[in-house]
């Protein structure tokens, strides 16, 4: 029925928005913004009608949650970094139908999930930042899924990702792109030292592990990466415990996925964290995928 047309791991660093304005950081995130615009260009070519975002800025403590309101509109200021993102307007259509299909399939698979369409839930900046550069004309419907899962297992998040794919391909009539919106290593600069880390990773160890991970991705060494994912998320402070990445890999076949990624925006440091835009080619699901 439906088509999963594109999958990607993307950055959402708030300095992208900051870099739009006159001042010392003007233009500093052009590469990341241009990466989002390139992903948008490909989505348009592929006829994507809906973007699903695994957003690590939406924290949940129980179950998997899907924000599939009919519309999203407001003016956003980050409560985490209000000096980076303030008074940012947004307006996007939602897709309640697909959101509920995802929850239905996940629950049938034994992954407890809830879709929220009659809701006052707002979007977080893990969704809002990329949509600013990909969806200013409201071309795409948007669904945001909680990706900061404090009390969840990474393998279960992989199964949730598989449920997303099954919902798209087996029950939805349309074309969808799915993004894991989050960093690689995610140790911020210590308080008072933020300016010196604006374009750096916090520690050489973290950067070297990140760069090795990117090499594994480029080589399609997913069995190795999945095996190291829990320790990587723990020791390198993976954003949202890297549940967004687990969901993305579950969507694609987990440790049986074999395709090499395409780097759209090369790895870079931002406020101590490791960032990238990378397209994960969509290939037929192996059987079985996530056990």
TrEMBL record:
CDD domains found in the cross-reference section: HPCD
An MF annotation (GO) of this entry: 3,4-dihydroxyphenylacetate 2,3-dioxygenase activity
Location of the Extradiol ring-cleavage dioxygenase class III enzyme subunit B domain: 7-280
The UniProt record lists the keyword DNA-binding: no
EC annotation from Swiss-Prot or TrEMBL: 1.13.11.15
Pfam families recorded: LigB (PF02900)
Key words, A-Z: Oxidoreductase
Entries under InterPro entries matching the protein: HPCD (IPR011984), Xdiol_dOase_suB (IPR004183)
Keyword Coiled coil annotated: no
Highest taxon, organism lineage: Bacteria
PANTHER family: 4,5-DOPA DIOXYGENASE EXTRADIOL-LIKE PROTEIN (PTHR30096), 4-HYDROXYPHENYLACETATE CATABOLISM PROTEIN (PTHR30096:SF9)
The name this protein goes by in its record: 3,4-dihydroxyphenylacetate 2,3-dioxygenase
Organism of provenance: Variovorax soli
